[in-house]
Amino acid sequence: MSARSTMTDTMNANESTTINQSQPVAEDAGYDFYFGPAHPGSGNFGVKLRMAGEVVTSARADPGYLHRGFEKLMEYRLPIQNSVLSDRICVLEALNWNLIHAEAVEELMEIEPPERAKYIRVIMAELSRIQSHIIWFGAFCIGTGFETGFKLAFGYRDYILDLFEMITGGRVYPAGYICPGGVRRGFPDGATQKIAQVLDQIGRMVRIEEIEHPALTARTKGVGVLNLEDAIRLGATGPVLRASGLKADVRKDDPYEVYERFDFEVPAREEGDAYARYLVGIEEIRQSARIIRQALQQLPEGEVIAPKLKRIKLATKIPEGDVYIRNEVARGEAGMYMVSDGGDKPYRVKIRGPSFLHMIPVLEHLLTGAQIADVPAIYWSLNVCPADLDR
Amino acid sequence: MGAKEDLEILDKIASEFKIKGEMRRKGRIWLDAPTEGFVDFCKWLKERGFEHLSAISAIDWPGEGMYELAYHLWSYLDKTLITLKVKIDRQNAVMDSVTEVWDGSAQAHEREIHELFGIEFEGNNNLTPLFLEDWEGLPPFRKDFNWREYVGEKYYDRHNERERVYYD
Predict the structure, then answer these.
(1) CA-to-CA distance for A58 and A51, rounded, in angstroms?
(2) A186 with A108: CB under 8 angstroms?
(3) Closest among A204, A210, A202, A69 to A128, alpha carbons compared
(4) First and final CA of chain A: distance in angstroms?
(5) Which residues from A are below 8 Å from B103, CB to CB?
(6) How far is A150 from chain B, CA to nearest CA, in Å?
(7) Of the four, A83, A141, A362, A383, which is 20 to 30 A from A180 by CA?
(8) What are phi and psi of B115, to 5 degrees?
(9) What share of residues in chain A are helix, strand, coil (percent, to 5)?
(10) Is A34 helix (H, G, I), strand (E, B) or coil?
(11) In this predicted model, what pLDDT tens digit does every residue of A49-94 receive, in sequence order?
């Protein structure tokens, strides 16, 4: 008897005494099954599943284990402090969140960063996206029992972390490298060559990822199908939405920084299953590399921080007003709504993380009716990050 | 989608709903809506193409005795962002739910605001808390909730010599 069925039997036996006290016991009453928060494959997040045999009859997301209250913390801090704080919104793509915060402050203060800074920002944001997609690939592989993919991914990710260390000083957290007004410092000597070398390495990895591994396809094809209508209704964005058939990308539809100057494709697929989401992710790594190569070629000379902010004063007044910034991060659409009442700290900051909707309505919808064995595949195919859900 | 089309949307809204708005830049429309007929206005916007409810933000203005809610809507068709702002009374913080317009996405956003600001949404059938465990105090994102005081009381010991600094 396998470990899983033993567990199921035990839970069935106990159901009337301990697990099911609050709910009335129907004739075909199932049992509750917890995926996370202590499950190694779930991150700091839980899903409470109601089971009937091996089928999930209903799912309820249980977030909150990573709630740090950034929105409130930012009300008490200066933009220069918030810039460092914004790294922490999502561990896996810290630079993208840095960029969103910087853009919000800039739009309120009407500062235009210099050209070179804009290019550096795009390069760093795209490197961060590749690195985040690699983690996605790794987590997706380990969730489906394909361990080779996991080790491959984390090995190649280190090349990009080395780059981050060289450029920003931090491997995972750049400590506010992309700050209001530009970037903290320019590229060190040899950085552009090293970026080009790392992109070649990543290209090699993408070619390995593209091979159809039976270990992966058998667990993901036709699993967790999200049709386009549901995707829009439940607020899916980014790769999840694109894998369901809508070619929508903030970088193309609502360009920020200098994205309109680059030639790149927005991959989309029709199937809407876990495997389609995976394929979209792989193609996005290649497109991001394409953007970085173009940016390196066009990279202009000059300053990297706006002259007005060259000597950053600790307490600069933010003019009264409000702004909503949208960016495309690795997981989908990220937003920041910043309100200022004219003081030196923001009056209110609202952070919109893409995982918020992916992990509550979308996940609950996809898990309902799924097999228990498919739960990790569905969960990880959504490219989730509990950190940007809880904030 | 250009600035001209944005202005057309604004004109249409002004003529049909008597709601005045401004276009701050291309693809960015800001509107101040009244609470009466709010859900009908949202339905009209959704049919007009604003299918994606990006977020709902709540802002607490205790000095003016009101909450402000900002609905950020995106149209995949027009490639335009509308921010719809509506003000509600702080003492009687009740708002009509937009779940019948934006369904699951609206429900999750309203759950969050209900938990962190204490605003009721009439018509939303699931407002269970998301983040806080067994919370009974003031909704923590309100301006009158002093988190420094809360953290001091809850996590630091006034009589411990090393932790006393948090009280001075």
Answers:
(1) 7
(2) no
(3) A202
(4) 42
(5) 233-234, 361
(6) 30
(7) A383
(8) -75, -45
(9) 55, 15, 35
(10) strand
(11) 888 888 888 888 888 888 888 998 898 888 888 889 998 888 888 9
Helices (H), A63-190: 70-75, 79-85, 94-109, 115-143, 147-168
In the structure, what pLDDT confidence band is assigned to residue A159 with cuts at 50, 70 and 90?
very high
Q: Which residues contact A126 (CB under 8 A, 6 or more apart)?
A: A288, A289, A291, A292, A295
3-state DSSP: chain B helix, strand, coil percent, rounded to 5? 35, 25, 40
pTM of the complete model: 0.85
- Residues pairing with A91 in the sheet: none
Tokens 């080779």 sit at which residue? A148
Q: How far apart are CA A237 and CA A277, in angstroms?
A: 12
CA distances to A153, A219, A251, B19 from A137, rounded to whole Å, are 7, 14, 22, 47
Of A253, A352, A361, the CB nearest to B55: A352
pLDDT tens, position by position, A320-372: 889 999 999 999 999 999 999 888 889 999 999 999 999 899 999 999 888 88
Pairing label, strands B120-122, B94-96: parallel
Q: Which of B24, B51, B57 to mutate to test the interface with A (most CBs of A within 10 A)?
A: B57
Round the CA-based radius of gyration of chain A to a whole number and report it. 22
**CB atoms A357 and B57 under 8 Å:** no
> What are the tens digits of pLDDT across the range B17-68?
777 788 778 888 888 888 888 898 888 888 888 889 999 999 999 988 899 9
Q: Which of B88, B107, B111 is nearest to B99 (CA)?
A: B107
State how far the Cα of A90 lies from the Cα of A76, in Å rounded to an integer: 20
Cα B156 to Cα A36, B85, B163: the distances in Å are 30, 40, 6
Q: Give the Cα separation of A141 and A159 in Å (integer).
A: 20
Cα B130 from chain centre: 16
Hey, what are A350's tokens? 């609202």
| pLDDT tens, position by position, B122-151 | 888 888 888 888 888 889 899 888 887 788
**Smallest CA–CA distance from A346 into chain B, residue:** B59
Q: Please return the burial class of B122, using the count of CB atoms within 10 Å of its CB with bins 0-12, 13-18 and 19+.
A: exposed
Could you give the ipTM of this predicted complex? 0.86
Q: How far is B36 from chain A (nearest CA, A)?
A: 24
pLDDT at A292 over 90: yes
